[in-house]
Design goal:
By secondary structure, the protein is an alpha/beta fold. It has one domain: 3-Layer(aba) Sandwich (Rossmann fold), CATH 3.40.50.1000. It contains nine helices and seven strands, in the order E-H-H-H-H-H-E-H-E-E-H-E-H-E-H-E. Helix 1 runs antiparallel to helix 2 (about 35-45) and helix 4 (about 70-75) runs parallel beside helix 6 (about 105-115).
């Protein structure tokens, strides 16, 4: 990973970097997939506070074995065009970050496999080989996402006018507003309405023409 970069592209993970919502994959292991999916949809539309919603959804995972992480990873589908976008960013001297309201336990495998340079997510508490239903530490929410984008830009010498943020849910809005260019991708109506640009096809390669040359 370069110490400095020409520009920075930060993506959300679930439904942006990847097609899946990881918490729903884990909830399937507990037989609670439908309930958690409905709660996730409400949070992404901005109808409920993200941190409160995440804690309640994670509580539904209590008792799920740690082995479920590997099964979830095996089901993950990278979003079309994601590898092409990351390769193009790197070819032009840029840095790719992912900041997620999801979980390090999955992203720590998925992100490096896709070529992501830096990433941040929540961590789940485990005990005796199972999830306790709790999040370890502060929630990565909308404010944390925006702060992370600014911190990565500062750490790697990227000027504010060369920052890009790509997301789909309400908790991505502050990050998108804080970037020079906020892109709605596979996004909820409120996000499309607030974004600088909306990417229509579910293909991250559509972002490549927007990158600095």
């Amino acid at each position: 990973m370069p110490e400095t970069a020409r520009f920075l592209v930060v993506l959300d993970a679930d439904s942006t970097l990847i097609r899946n919502e990881v918490i729903e994959l884990l909830a399937d292991e507990a037989g609670r997939g439908a309930e958690v999916a409905a709660a996730t949809e409400a949070a992404m539309r901005g109808e409920v506070d993200f941190a409160t919603s995440l804690r309640s959804r994670v509580a539904e995972l209590a008792g799920v074995p740690v082995a479920a992480f590997a099964r979830a990873i095996a089901r993950i589908e990278p979003t079309p065009g994601v590898r092409e976008l990351i390769e193009a960013v790197h070819a032009r001297g840029g840095l790719v970050g992912v900041v997620s309201g999801g979980f390090h336990e999955v992203l720590d495998t998925v992100a490096p496999d896709l070529g992501v340079d830096v990433w941040r997510a929540n961590r789940l508490v485990t005990a005796d080989g199972v999830l306790t239903g709790e999040v370890d530490g502060p929630i990565v929410d909308a404010t944390a996402k925006a702060n992370t984008l600014r911190q990565w830009a500062s750490d790697h010498g990227v000027p504010a006018h060369l920052t890009f943020a790509i997301g789909d849910g309400a908790n991505d809005l502050r990050m998108m507003e804080g970037a020079a260019l906020g892109l709605a991708f596979n996004a909820k109506p409120a996000v499309r309405a607030s974004a600088d640009l909306v990417i229509g096809p579910v293909d991250l390669a559509e972002v490549i023409p927007l990158l600095p040359r």
